[in-house]
Amino acid sequence: MRTLRLIWVGWKFHVKSLTLSGFFIVTSVIQPIIFASLAYLLFRIGAREGTLLYVALGAGMMGIWSSTLFGSGGAIQWQRWQGTLEYCIAVPPPLLLVIVPLTLATATIGLYSLTATLVWGRLFFDVPLDVAHPVAFVVALPVTVVGLGLLGLILASTFVLYRNANALSNLLEYPVWLVTGLLVSLSLLPGWVGPISWALAPTWGVNALREAAIAGNPWPEIGMCLALGAVYLVIGHFALQHFERLAREQATLSLT
Amino acid sequence: MAVVEAHDLHRTYRTSTGTLRRKWKDVEAVRGVSFAIEQGELFGLLGPNGAGKTTTIKMLITLLIPTKGTARVLGYDVVKDAREVRKRIGYVFGGERGVYERLSGYDNLRYFAELYGVPPREIRPRIDALLELVGLKGREQERAEGYSRGMKQRLHIARGLLHDPPVVFLDEPTIGLDPVGARELRATIASLADAGKTILLTTHYMFEADALCDRIAVINRGQIVAQGTPADLKRDVAQGTVVEVEVFGIPEGTVERVRSLSGVQSVSVEEREQAQLLLVQTRADVELTQAILGQLDGANVGRISRREPSLEDAYVTLVAEE
């Protein structure tokens, strides 16, 4: 009970903090809108089969991934800069319970991207926003956010140890967009990409949302997203334990 | 049993220079620090910048793992029982950093109250009482980014006391505060000591240590060079006389020349608005005023005085000896 309360209070705290960051919100909205516009135009010019909603959800998910990626890592780095990282680490609860609410919050803020993309698409590209399975869609959305947030946990753990892990974030943005099928269909990519994409929650998250929106069966994807989230949680827990110990040994928790 | 015990603590940092051909260098920040703090004691760790005060405190509050040696807080090992130690200590670092700037003071305290496991029903009254204690009542709903340095520092104090810890670590808490703010904060620290908290305070302000601490350890270049009550340190170390000479434009090499005079124990220079104050501590059995003036190469001299040594003089002597 206390654990859930800690996660809930921490999540609210970080969502509020991130929402008050004008820069973070603007980048969460502007960048996905630009990519969504490009995707809509390419989709139309290519006269591809399918629905624009399929594209809109992919573009929105790109935003959620970027928010999680830069938010999770960036938030740790930002906490190091503003001097709160040491205060957060030297508290009694395990570091996992301090960082999980933060990464879940960054994934949640990614919903701004999805919303902005869908509204943009509706207003300027006539994207139909009819959802075939509203209940499944409403379930898939938080499950996807949780899956991505827990993937963010693993990324965040590296930032606890390394002061300059930003390079990792920059490296992972575009490749993950590609290998999770957010931009192009996975069937167009080489076979070896398959196992990588299956291990990444955004693949299953976007598929769940698309299946729920466009008359399919989203439940297996929702289940996979949850299962992967559980795996990330276990990996994140051990990674954080390990990296926290190393950070205390190597003195990388503060800037000086 | 002592509340805080440090035995032969060492901490080495590894730093590197260069990009392609990196050269690694070990810097020994703390070299064999040992002390014990008893229940209810206000213990001061005094030293210049870079002496190892913050490194020592970070090892005690579990943020750094000692390279060698052990430390215990309330009987718990700071490495093996880090969680148990964390439950029982509060800590405050000096300076403005360490606050969630975009959120209000109340939000900051509310979040840390949760992290420290304050029971939900007690959170509100506990925060209200602490806001009252540190003088932030009425400003708690404002964003922390609008707080002055002193207000942020007081917010730190409140955060460190949320779970009513029996042991409190204060790392240069008054650094950068204006005189009034620093005095108020010292009063708060004194009230914590009166309430029975065991406190480790690091500072490089002598008068602060003299006014607040029951005992003091002077640390320099990672080693403790003296330990005792303020009166002990003054008696043991600061014997003799202090000659103060106001000089307008102190000539180069003066400090070295004065230091070489027989009977001189330590020499330091304090910058004043338009002059420098040359402080020379000498043995009690010598009279060196004329000899000191003779080393000033005809520079303009203002006020000259002789006085008994203070704790600050004791500190300068200890640090200069190293």
Spell out the helices and strands of chain B N to C: EEEHEEHEHHHEHEHEEHEHEEHEH
The DSSP helix count of chain A reads 10
C-alpha-based Rg of chain B, rounded? 22 Å
Strand content of chain A: under 5%
What would the average pLDDT of chain A be, to the nearest integer?
Answer: 83
Termini gap of chain A: 37 Å
Structural class of chain A: mainly alpha
What is the gyration radius of chain A calculated from CA atoms?
Answer: 18 Å
Q: Order of strands in the sheet with the most strands of chain B?
A: 6-7-8-3-9-10
The ordered string of helix (H) and strand (E) elements of chain A is HHHHHHHHHH
Number of domains of chain A: 1
Q: Between the first and last Cα atoms of chain B, what is the distance in angstroms?
A: 32 Å
Summarize the helices and strands and which ones pair or pack.
The complex is a heterodimer of chains A (256) and B (322).
Chain A: H1 2-19, H2 22-45, H3 52-82, H4 84-89, H5 95-125, H6 134-161, H7 166-179, H8 193-198, H9 201-213, H10 219-250
Helix pairs in contact in A: 1-5, 2-3, 2-5, 3-5, 3-6, 3-7, 3-9, 5-6, 6-9, 6-10, 9-10
Chain B: E1 4-17, E2 23-37, E3 42-46, H1 53-60, E4 68-73, E5 76-77, H2 82-88, E6 89-93, H3 105-115, H4 120-134, H5 149-160, E7 167-171, H6 179-194, E8 198-203, H7 206-212, E9 215-220, E10 223-228, H8 230-237, E11 241-248, H9 254-259, E12 264-271, E13 276-282, H10 289-293, E14 300-307, H11 311-321
Parallel strand pairs in B: 3-8, 3-9, 6-7, 7-8
Antiparallel strand pairs in B: 1-2, 1-4, 4-5, 9-10, 11-13, 11-14, 12-13
